[in-house]
Amino acid sequence: MSNNRLKVIMRHIIPWKTDIKSTLTSSIAEELTVKSPFELSLNNNKLLNADQQLFYEENGYLVIRKLVDEETLHECRNHFVDICERRYPKGSMILMKDISLSKLGRTGEYLYNKIQDLIWDEVFETYILHDTLLDYVESFIGPNIKAVHSMLINKPPDPKTLTSRHPLHQDLYYFPFRPSNKIVAAWTAMESITTENGCLVVIPGSHKGPLLEHGYPEWENGVNKAYHGVKGLDSHNAIPLHMEVGDTVFFHPLLIHGSGPNLTQGFRKAISCHYASSDCYYIDVKDTIQDNIAKEVEDIARKRGFDGSFNNIWQVKSRLVRGEENTL
Q1: Residue 257 phi/psi, 5° resolution?
Q2: Contact present, 167 and 204 (Cβ < 8 Å)
C-alpha cells in the first residue's frame, strides 16, 4: 500500500489528529501575539522605553530633555523678534497682542504674546520639520503625521495685571478632529522656564477624563482673545514644569494645563506644534461644548478675509510633514 493511501486511511480513522495540531498552532500563535498595554503611544520605532511609555500613559505628558538644538531655537527666536519689530513681513501668520500691554502702548516684542500658523514659514519650519522631534511624534501617533496647529508663545514682563497667564484648558476643545489618542502636542522651551516667568502647569492624569466645558474666565483685568479655560475648576493639583532650553514636553490633547504670569523683567518664550495622524477624521461640533469656540474662530477668520467653516479653517492650517495623506 502506498504511503499516500495510508495517510488518507489514517485521516478517516483518526480525524482529530489534524484538529489537535491546528488547535495547538492557534494557541501558540495567540500566546505569541501579546497586546500592548500602552494605548497612547504606538512606539513602532522603539524610541520610547517602557518607563517613558508608562509615564505618558498614566500622566498624559512626557518631558524629553535637550531634544531640540539651541541653534534652531536661536534662529526662531530672532525671527520672531524681527517680525514683531516689522523687519520681516509676517505674511499669513497671525500676531496676537496682550490686552494689557496694548492699552499701555507697548510695541514690538513687548506687545505681542504669540505668533501662530507657522507651518509654511522658512525659518519656523525648521522646528516644525525637525527630524528628531518628528521621530518622537511618530512614537506617539504613528508614521503619517500632519502639523495642525503651530505657534511661538512669548510672555513679556507682566504689567501687574496678570493677563500674561493662560487659564487651565484642554487643547482638544479647539480641535474638530478625532480620535484624541492620535493627537499630540510638542512644546519646547526657548529659554530657562520657571514658576517665576510663567512655566507650564499640568494636572497629571487629567487626560483620562472627558472633554470639559470651557469659557472665558472672569478675571479682574480681562483675558486675551481665545484664551478659554475649563469652567468650575476652582481647586486642582496642577504641578509646574520647569524646563531649560531645548527641553520638550509632549502631551495629550485632553491633558488639563495652563501657565502662570511672567513676574520677571525678562521674556519667556516657547515654540509649539500640535501634530495629528493623517488617519484622524473630522467631526461636526455643532450643538456640542465646542460650538462656541467654533463660532468664535469662524468670526475671527471672517474678519481676516477667510469665509469658511471651522473644519475648513483647520484644513488650511494643516500640513503633512511625514508619511502619507489620509482622511484628515
Answers
A1: -150, 165
A2: no
- Longest alpha-carbon distance in the chain: 104
pLDDT at 192 over 50: yes
Beta strands in the chain (DSSP E): 61-64, 94-97, 112-116, 145-155, 166-169, 177-178, 183-189, 200-202, 214-215, 229-230, 239-241, 248-251, 257-259, 268-277, 281-282, 319-322
pLDDT band at residue 236 using 50, 70 and 90 as cut-offs: confident
Q: How far is CA 143 from CA 52, 201, 279, in A?
A: 19, 29, 10
**Length of the chain in residues, anyone?**
328
* Highest mean pLDDT pick, 105-109, 115-119, 213-217: 115-119
* pTM confidence score: 0.88
Query: Cell numbers 541653534 correspond to what residue?
Result: 71
% pLDDT > 70, the chain = 89
How far apart CA 62 and CA 8 sit, in angstroms, is: 61
Could you give the CA distance from residue 114 to residue 116 in angstroms, rounded to a whole number? Answer: 6
Cβ neighbours around 52 below 10 Å, total: 19
Instruction: Supply the pLDDT for residue 9.
Output: 39
